[in-house]
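Self-study notes.
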Amino acid sequence: MRKTFLVLTLLFLVGCSSQVPTESAQASASPQQGCDAFVECDENSTSVIASDFKEAYESLNGKENSSGKVHRTITIAEDHPFVNTTEQEVIDRMDAGESFYLYIGDAKCPWCRAVIETAIAKAREYGVSEILYLPIWDEEGNEILRDKYELINGKVEQTVPGTEGYQELLKRFDSVLDDYTLLDGDTEIKVGEKRIYAPNYFRIENGGKTVTLVTGIPSGLNDPRSELTDAQLQEIADTFDAVSYTHLRAHETLRYL
């Protein structure tokens, strides 16, 4: 049977018109959820077009965006397990009853960069040869997978549609996902659907009969670009141990479908 290291929890645009006034509202994501909107996670990042996973992540090392935020420097192992996929392939493999791992995130997501090296190390430690990978943004930071909602004149409106495959994944992962909310000042307003944040690592077993989700984000990490403490690195490692392997149901932060 194909070994795969899944995607677990881990897991990231606003506009206005001179003719139609809009309220100040943005997507809301706690540090333990990860990235939701591009502007909150990596505003105006330098555009990078990379041909593969390793190049995409390492090409941003040490680079600043227009806000002066510096990307974490990371090293992606040559034998990393990530394989680009599509929403339809994920759905097809679930329909075929397969068990596999899925990672939804992005090279420009600072939360993703904070945990990716540990995720790879754990995959190599346990002999996991494949983790399917779905990115969420294009080189300019536009959503290419998920939908986007904004508050316009006090009403929640969809301004970017998600793909059909994304909507299907929301249905299949509903029980392990958080609500999609917008902030209107200090008030959280529910959009009316769930949200895949980044990083989200999923373990999909028996075609989706059991789905486990983790982000890998350690407690107390409020700035994803800050140096990780030894305790936080250990917490990341423990999360991937727990979600991926023998003591699967022993870890209190896991959620199951």
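Second protein, same conventions, sequence then structure:
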Amino acid sequence: MERIYGLLGRRLGHSWSVPIHKALGCESYRLIELEPEGLGDFLRREDIGGLNVTIPYKRDVMQFCDVLDPAARSIGSVNTLVRRGGKLYGYNTDIDGFLYMLRRADISLAGKKTVILGSGGASLTAQAAARQEGAREIVVVSRTGEIQYENLPERHPDAEALVNTTPVGMWPHMDTAPVDLHLLPAVTDVADVVYNPGRTNLLLQAEEIDRKYRLLDAQGLRPEERELNGARPIKYTGGLSMLAAQAKRAEELFFEKDIPHYETERILAKLWRNRTNLVLVGMPGSGKTTVGKALAELSGKPFVDLDDEITRAAEKPIPEIFAREGECAFRALESRVLNQVCARSGQVIATGGGAILSGENRAALRRTGWVCCLRRRLEDLPTEGRPLSQAGRLEEMERLRGPLYDAAADRSFSNEISPAETAGTIWRDFCEQ
């Protein structure tokens, strides 16, 4: 009998589970979307081999299990189902993945007041892991419980670790965050189980606070001065490593075999290379399009020129948009197109020189991408056909935009050599991350 392997959930457009399990050798793994009323009939099928379970069914499936693993029973949540000898076995491999995620990011919950956002199946796993790790206190936040998002900062301003187990910030609704870290000034560890996008708004804020701390530290400011500036060191992680680690453990249960530990890191590296957008920012004329095309050929990723996408959407060239409608209209269109492009994964994206002027744009680029800033001497920057680069405005433009390029970029690269050489340098650096 051909067995069914896959991910069971209600809405699975965000999922990366199929490429992970295929990389682990399960070629028939697929996405299985079901409405609640169809759950029971499906789980009674005798041809089920192994299933992962996600939102909203991690607790619902327990009633259909003939045998519950002690960990799943203790946690109160099942994310892995296996049919053996006519019986349906329920397991929780999320806790394996969760602990792997924390240790990989050097995050410890031991002795810390830990706030867990959400009260669903993933929250139960995080609570069990926090107890296992020796958290000093565990606070569960929900929309209807005693501790809610609105009163969290007032009730628990001394929270030290924060775990998001809700889908807030997940694709396609990526421009939201469950809490504001500035209102929780004692938090120094942040884990978000969301893995698509790679950097949720919550993680972007943690990264920004940590970056600011390191910058002020390099300037020699004392700890109390850094805190006055809203900066502190924060360790943070997204959920991709959790996804890969729990999938490896699920595959071991599906096929009753051991898989080497290094397979988790191999799959993470593969997902990083294949799914992350490579984004090029920099001054107009810095070579983003030319280097981007070389980088696309080198990486095998499709190339997207943001200016071309804007021209296509407006049905007119960019200089004409500026001349007829002005810069404000152009920037609004640029933001709309940029968000549409960044909602896709696995591309090389060359942006316009001013795409980083908007904080929302910088966040959109960083959520799904690894951002590279290209640098060239001002005298080498062409100005023809570039409305804002003409009339001797490059020096002023660089002065104003330089800090924004720095804020957007993960790395900066000089583009004074050939485009192919610059692309090779970027690709090697990206693959090492």
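Instructor comment on the second fold: The first helix runs from residue 17 to 23.
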